[in-house]
Design a protein that fits this description.
There is one protein chain. By secondary structure, the chain is mostly beta strands. It has one domain. Helices cover 11% and strands 45% of the residues. A three-stranded antiparallel β-sheet has the order 1-2-3, with no helix packed on it.
């Protein structure tokens, strides 16, 4: 028996920030957060 789940990931890329969100199957979009675009911000 297979329990296939699709996870959609969205990235909003802007000059000063990156916003990350996801949705499982056809569910609601969940916002994970926002970070800066500097290497240290992304690594964190």
């Amino acid at each position: 028996m297979h329990n296939d789940i699709t996870v959609y990931i969205g990235l909003g890329l802007h000059k000063d920030s990156i916003t990350v969100a996801y949705a499982i199957d056809a569910g609601e979009v969940e916002l994970l957060g926002r970070t800066g675009t500097a290497r240290a911000d992304i690594d964190r």
